[in-house]
């Protein structure tokens, strides 16, 4: 029998900032606005689509008063501040004809301060772009497309809105999967095949629902509009040909005036699929591509990283399945199959929405992802490695 433990290491979801009904989404709906002392910054963010069209976004943002970081009193405020500063920071860097190589102190210092409190780099990441960037049209309704809208946009429009909201809906549907992770690990520790089969069946159903949401992306997000109007603002400054040395954060003592290289926002910063890889024992070969996957964890909320590490430290499912019935093995294979389908569809979207688009701006490269990687190679490798893990 596996080493006796009272519960699987990932059993207490709340200890890792997770919610039984919301998964990696925040326990409470995201804060939509900071209090009165932040009004000038909130107004700038609300007007961001207009400022970007003006082609004077840097000049206008430079008029903002100091960001009152001392008035941030709890995590929800910190997360809202991180969203504000990330959007305004990226607008400053990418919002005019040529990107800047230095971010002025009025933005750099508060951004670094808030990011440090949250345990993430000062760059727009998935947590701010999606997890903390929605509200419900009807408070009693579900967290699902049709009842959610974005709090913050760059240019705005249905394509940008839909692109992010699909991710929020996927996160909401993933809750049914994530809450089964500790249950599956308990079953493994107890060597309880029936309980494991029950959890795998629920995970399979949840993965199918996630896939169905992802499949809706083309309904309101056009590939051309995404590439030319949504994607340009979410790039980072690592392995980006437009900022080969990275970005200088003026006034941030910890960086000592040296340029910093941070990756841009990417779905690889979502914790869902890496958690499932850990639970199902989907192994990625030790190479530069796996190094990239591990690097993505630095951009996730620290508690979410901790949850993934706890799952990885759990009992090996594939080893236990060697002595299980064909029915249970088939349930496992079905789960792996849905992860493979999810990755395949993501690969197809990457080809259509990015790789096949005509590049007109060197700061928005079609062969390098927003995370600064040769994404087609990466996504195909991750998909192929998933496929190989079927046991049947």
Describe it for me?
The protein is mainly alpha-helical. The chain has 16 helices and four strands. It has a two-stranded parallel sheet. Helix 7 runs antiparallel to helix 9 (193-214) and helix 9 (193-214) runs parallel beside helix 15 (326-355).
Topology order in helix (H) and strand (E) letters:
HHHHEHHEEHHHHEHHHHHH
SS summary, helix count:
16
Instruction: Summarize the main sheet.
Output: 2 strands, parallel
What portion of residues belong to β-strands?
under 5%
Structural class: mainly alpha
Widest sheet: strand order? Answer: 1-4
Shape: globular
Distance between the termini: 25 Å
Radius of gyration of CA atoms, rounded to a whole number: 21 Å
Helix content: 40-55%
Which regions have little confidence, pLDDT < 50, spanning 5+ residues? Answer: 1-8
Q: Can I get a quick summary?
A:
By secondary structure, the protein is an all-alpha fold.
Please describe the structure with a list of short key phrases separated by commas or semicolons.
16 helices; 392 residues; single chain; mainly alpha; two-stranded parallel sheet; two-stranded antiparallel sheet
